[in-house]
Amino acid sequence: MRKRNAKLVVVIVTGVVFAFLLFAFAGCVIVTNVLDANLKIPPDDLAMSFCSTSDTEAPEITLNGDSTTYVLVGGEYEELGASASDDCDNVELTMNGGVDTTVIGSYTIIYSATDSSGNVGEVRRTVNVVPEHRGTIYLTFDDGPGIYTTELLDILARYNVKATFFVTGVGDDALILREYNEGHAVGLHTFTHNYAYIYQNMNAFLDDLTRVQERVKRITGYTSYLMRFPGGSSNTVSARYDGGARIMSKLVAEVTRRGFTYYDWNISSGDAGETTSSNVVYANVVNRLGDGDYVVLQHDIKGFSVAAVERIIQYGLANGYDFAKLEATSFAAHHRVNN
Length: 339
Ligand SMILES: [Zn+2]
Hints:
CATH topology of the largest domain: TIM Barrel
Bound molecules: zinc ion
């Protein structure tokens, strides 16, 4: 009886172990099949079959550095290169073109890459070999901000050119904030810009100047001491309103005593009445450039004037000039005061 029981136990244990092994094996088979089903076409193969039949995407090429650069004639040019990537292939980058820094001119460097489906990616860099430094151009924009100021700020940002804005009481606060945040100088041009009011006496002028100074301070947190007189320090319109008090001479002395620096200009773009043509504005500016520093007068409330700025910048950069914003120590292009 004990022996039979023992045999039975052995049979049962063997059966359980066998059943367990069977289940475990079946489980493995099931799990393995699921994995196989999922992995039947690995992702790489999927991409490969797409790439061999319908790849229309050209390799993407990214320049290191700017797409337009400048180097002084006789200087050294270092090409910063580029990198290429493609959705299907490992592509090889080819560079064509070169720069002769002994000859002034514009040179093009072309990077290209071709993938296995024949799609060609290409980018170009323009390298301008420019003359020796001839001077600094201070672009200044009065009477804004206005509806063309955004466009102007976009152009200045594209060329990393800093300019100076002599603002008044008009326009959006946000534009003055953008001018300031993007590194331009925000100067003062009186709040009302009303000649009959500001030039009637010293107090009226100083109140109006303080009013725009406070506006700029409220928007930017910055107290500006850069200023431009409406009409410039040489204006004679003020004599109509000052009752013979020789107001400009007094104002020049007083604002200076109060720590302001005032700026006139030595190139007028002619956009204040002489012309409404972008081409004339452009010509007025570039034809008056020689060796030296230039403060250029423009108005960012005039669309045709803003439309000339990009070409003025391109001309300046290609002809030996750099651009800067006005600072307290900058060339101020003072006019002769007439009254
Ligand atoms: Zn003005």
